[in-house]
C-alpha cells in the first residue's frame, strides 16, 4: 500500500508485471492520467483502491479480467463515464 503519501504522476505501467499482486492501494495521492492497460494482467488482484486521486478517462473495461476482485474503491478518483458492463462478471466482488 502507498496510500496517503502525496505521490504524483502517472501510474507506472510496470505495475502490471506483478502477477502475484493481490492488493493495490493507491488512495489519497496525486496520481494523474489514465490507468495503464498493463494493469489488466493483474489477474490475482483482490483489492483495488484508487480514490482521492486525479485520474482521467473512463473506468477501464479491463477490470473484468480481475476475477478474484472482492473490493473496488474508485470514489473521487477522477475517472468518469459509465460503469463497465464487465463488472457484473466479477462474482467475488462484495464491496463496491
UniProtKB/TrEMBL annotation:
The keyword Lipid biosynthesis does not apply. One of its GO terms (cellular component) is membrane. Transmembrane segments: none annotated. Keywords: Leucine-rich repeat, Repeat. This is Leucine-rich repeat-containing N-terminal plant-type domain-containing protein. InterPro entries: Leu-rich_rpt, LRR_dom_sf, LRR_Rcpt-Like_S/T_Kinase. It holds the Pfam family LRR_1. It is a single-pass type I membrane protein. It is found in: Membrane. It comes from Rhododendron williamsianum. It comes from the Eukaryota. The keyword S-adenosyl-L-methionine does not apply.
Amino acid at each position: 500500500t502507498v496510500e496517503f503519501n502525496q505521490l504524483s504522476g502517472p501510474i507506472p505501467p510496470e505495475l502490471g508485471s506483478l502477477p502475484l499482486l493481490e492488493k493495490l492501494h493507491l488512495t489519497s495521492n496525486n496520481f494523474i492520467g489514465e490507468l495503464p492497460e498493463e494493469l489488466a494482467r493483474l489477474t490475482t488482484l483482490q483489492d483495488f483502491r484508487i480514490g482521492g486521486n486525479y485520474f482521467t478517462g473512463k473506468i477501464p473495461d479491463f477490470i473484468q479480467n480481475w476475477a478474484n476482485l472482492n473490493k473496488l474503491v474508485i470514489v473521487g478518483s477522477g475517472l468518469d463515464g459509465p460503469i463497465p458492463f464487465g463488472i457484473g462478471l466479477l462474482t467475488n466482488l462484495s464491496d463496491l
